Queue: 2 jobs
Job 1
Amino acid sequence: MTCWRFIITILVLAVFHQNASAQYEVSKNCTMAWEALLDLRINTAKELTKKEISLNPDNYYAYYVAQNCDAYELMINATSEGYEAFKDNYYDRREIMDDKDVESPYYLACESEMQLQMGIFNIIFGDRLAGLRRAFSAYKNIYKNLDRYPDFQMGNKLDGMLNVAISNLPPFVSWAANTFGVSGDAEVGYSILNTYFDYFGDTPGLNEEAVLYTILAHKLNKDPLGAYNFIKSIDSSYANYLLLKYFYANVAYRSGFNEEALNIFSTFNPNELEIQFNPYNYLYGKIMLRKLDSSAIMYFTKYLDQNNKKDNLKEINYQLALAYLINGNIARFLEHKKFASELGDDITERDREAMYDYSLDYIPDINLVKAKLLLDGGYNLHAKAILEKYSSEKIDYNSQSPYSLEYNLLIGRLEYQTNNNKLAIISFEKVLDMGKDQDYYFASEAALYLGLIFEKTDPQKAISFFERARELYDSDYYEYIDEISKKRIKILSSS
């Protein structure tokens, strides 16, 4: 799932299991519905909320859960028809809930969160202005509620979520947030969510929610390894829920543990789910691509065939292009590179990365593409063999050509990932020197890696490299370079 998908997931999973007033009763049906959502049994969850509303039509919490069911379904399988139905149901539920039990801390919490969901879907489906206005209104109400009830755990949870989400907004939204005076601090947000997990870690029902929030906080904060380490530190039974299992596989993939992600997915059968779950094809295809497995083509094709939304189209078409490239099919590579440039939008960070990739003024070297994919997946020995073969075949890999720069960057990454920092430094400094005047990301990323190497032994030197990475950074390519550098500078400067 992309950055936006993670943000939406955070919003739709904010279920409050605390004891509530009579008009916000967390009944058995509501609790069972929440558990069904975590297990991706969305139809079952819908039936449970219908049953609760039929038995207790004045339980406004049930309407909130019902919207979560719809949001889940729309998040997973977005269609224009589903979006219109979501809007209709949203307005119907708001009409029922508005001005009911307004003194309850749950009143503003439920309604503002529902409004925030609606705002984000507005943005995803093209009505950005309406979405931003609705999201800002929800933001104000959330903090109004927090001022009234500072000890209300759900309010603190939302405070943490918003800090992380806002600090990781895409550029087209962040400028608007700044205009409205909306700001967030990811480190503060993560700290709040971590406290939330500690508070409810032993509470049945809330513990699974707390696990999910902590994972997503790490993910949104560009720290998949943090999420991975957190998962490893807790009871493995949490992974029995299919949604948590999906995120477990995702963070393992993002952290470079590709085989572990594959093993997790071996127990995940999308055919047994109550609804079509296209994110499975999205992630499984990317896992197989890192193995250089040609089956990635099949999963990417399935994803595109089942996809009904504009985001991820650029990313997956370019991923599919690479899958054809490493299999020697240049014609299909060029075809899907063209599709990537023409289809979809630039909402997600991955789509914007694809925009840089397909705009390159050269065809990527097949062996370098393979080596990069293998390094991303943690297949260091296989990557080393390919890079050694590549160096023996090339006449000059000490030039300023993009191939030479990428080769040396990958050599640096290989040494870094195998704990040979002295050799890694040599390669990264070489890339930095040769590529500092080139319009590619290689020099900027090399500076980022040099900062990561030195941050434990020489913080000031690390800061200088992170600053160098930001100086060389061009907004046309990978945003993580600038974002990670900025965050590391902040952390090192305050320590």
Note: The CA atoms of residues 341 and 359 lie 8 Å apart.
Job 2
Amino acid sequence: MYYIGVDLGTSSVKLLLMDDDGNIVNTVTKEYPISFPKPGWSEQNPTDWYEKTVEGIKELISNIDSSKVAGISFGGQMHGLVILDENDNVIRPAILWNDGRTTKECDFLNNEYGKDKLTNNTANIAFAGFTAPKILWLKENEPDNFKKISKIMLPKDYLAYRLSGEFCTDVSDASGMLLFDVKNRCWSEEMLELVGIKKEQMAKVYESYECVGNLTKQAASELGLSTSVKVIAGAGDNAAAAVGTGTVGDGKCNISLGTSGTIFIASKNFSVDDNNALHSFAHADGYYHLMGCMLSAASCNKWWLDDIIKDKDYQKEQAEITDDKLGNNKVFYLPYLMGERSPHNNPLARASFIGMTMDTTRSDMTQAVLEGVAFAIRDSFEVAKSLGIKIDRTKICGGGAKSPLWRKIIANVLNVKVDILEKEEGPSLGAAMLAAVGTKRFEDVSEAVDKIVKVVDTIEPDKAIAQRYEYKYNQFKKIYPALKPVFDEIARE
């Protein structure tokens, strides 16, 4: 049998076809537009998602026996606000995760309603990208549209609704709405009341691996598939990617060095840190996870090499950075090109080099960029450790993880083993694995991971290098608090 994983991203939908043994049979990517109607705004038309998904699935299955497709599931961009009227028409373009129009609403939620209440009700505080602030914005700025709302859903759930006719979401994606009681895995009635939404306007919540229904006759006809194909709830993109990297269960960790950077820690127990430095969400495996998100990771290296020193030969630029230099660099780099989310939650933070002298070299600066990102990841790592979570190894993925040097730096800065995976397909693979679980190919997510996810190499930390980095990290973590007043002052100009 075959399983389809749909990764509904911000610029494109990536579709993956997986067989019973976890082999990737085919992948297809379809792009769609994104609009920026005003500075800081970010919107998309949900019908574009569906049309491109249908187009992509037809191409994906064109060379197989379509009667052998057993299930479809999803990984999707989180936090986006999709609203339908009583006739299931999209009322307005979806407001996306990277939309920044809700500063006023976040201030109200965090400061007037209060972070303590938010944490108690949802396990999280308000960020501009989250869904609840978007609903408040809509209520104040587009009251006519707000009154028309019959259904509120997240981006991937719009696809599930169009395919199955079932108004559904999953626990991991719902966790990022600031309307969901993460600990108890249900809607927070107090939060719904706060934003002026009734429970019947919210979707039924499933575990990520649960079947929500089958393809409708119409959807099956459009896709060239049978109505026997099961639609599985799926997960938010980070949780789906975590399934695809085997980051499930207890104490498992994955670091993603993409444009942004994430540290994702699976846990069987619910926990929230005192400062809400990490997101506390329900996980796709039936348990929980903590996640730290830094806004600039591999993009820091790209900015430094492509835009500043104008040399795209990344390997050549890193060649001079030998083991004896690791942990001995006198230059530090703060990786806050776009402000920062975790653990500082400060949009006014800025990237900075510090510690240069007359003998500082180009190579020192390049090394500082790689180390600065690793130190910033460790900031979130330390928060997780403070909650008693023991982590002795991590997976690593993303464009930045292709650098052997950067992998080595991560291993030694965190002082953990770093596992390299056989295949890295992100949320689309995780979604296909959830489809396989939901159709009973595997008993649970853990079994799917054991059968499909393979480690092909492990980077061991070097005791001497790790010791040097321990000293350097203790210097690094003093820099942001010292500069924060300066960042605030710069922002006022």
Note: The mean pLDDT is 95.
